[in-house]
């Protein structure tokens, strides 16, 4: 059975917001906003399909930005996706969504539309911009009515960690189809997420309890335990068990970087992971992605280099978040700063 390979594709830097934790704007060093033209997007698309043909994978695109809907050729790209029957989701902002726009997205084949909630109203609007919180909740309805799966993602840091349980309640009340959270990756100016391992584990305990209560009551929201430290948590609670029938050197879960993911930004630069700031491995306008995958990407597949995880029995399933580890000192293989396990 073929496996999917995901491309996180940033087609433009144009955006209605200047989020404080955005990789593009957080360091105030973005001198110009980059954007692919239509020909470059077409070339990128077929480079990705060539990659999947070489490695016998099924392509899946996460189209994002900035806000991808602001790209003047956004609908032309979606038409290309639709003509080739390629599945895709969109990671974007709420501001330009209407019932008509969402129906059109559905007609072109959009499967999911991801929005962000990074706190309750005051905190979220501080992170993003005034009015963003209420607009996000309103537009979840547009997405749902169109038959697209609505996704809410929360970026957790020391600033909003205490608000996450309330964010979950808010997402459920808004009839969000999928909820997940991931941790803030520090920029070069910040070296800390503002959370201790114990504080983060306490959050997982609280969220796990809330998830189970909602599920027991028939809640239709799917709670995606995206952070790989959930594996460690469920290993400790007995919900996840390490299989004895495993092969040495095989990876069965955890971070997709180096396994089934690449990120492409508007300049054409290719990153092993967008959240790993120093992970550029090529340029889609100059390099064949199939070649990049077996050359430069090898630097992200040496699992014996994980300073802490290589000593742990969960190496093949967890590895925490190398992007968060890398944000601290640039070392992809450093210990996850929120991992509480002693090895």
Give the low-pLDDT segments: none
- Total beta-strand segments: 10
The N- to C-terminal Cα distance equals 36 Å
Oligomer designation: single chain
Helix/strand/pairing category: alpha/beta
Radius of gyration: 20 Å
Fraction in beta strands: 15-25%
Describe this structure in words.
The chain is an alpha/beta fold. It has helices spanning 38-54, 74-83, 99-108, 121-127, 132-145, 164-173, 197-216, 229-237, 289-294, 322-329, and strands at 3-10, 57-64, 88-91, 110-116, 149-156, 178-183, 222-224, 261-264, 269-271, 280-283. The protein is built from ten helices and ten strands. The chain has a ten-stranded mixed sheet with strand order 7-6-5-4-3-2-1-8-9-10. A hairpin with an 8-residue loop joins strand 9 and strand 10 (280-283). The longest helix has 20 residues, at 197-216.
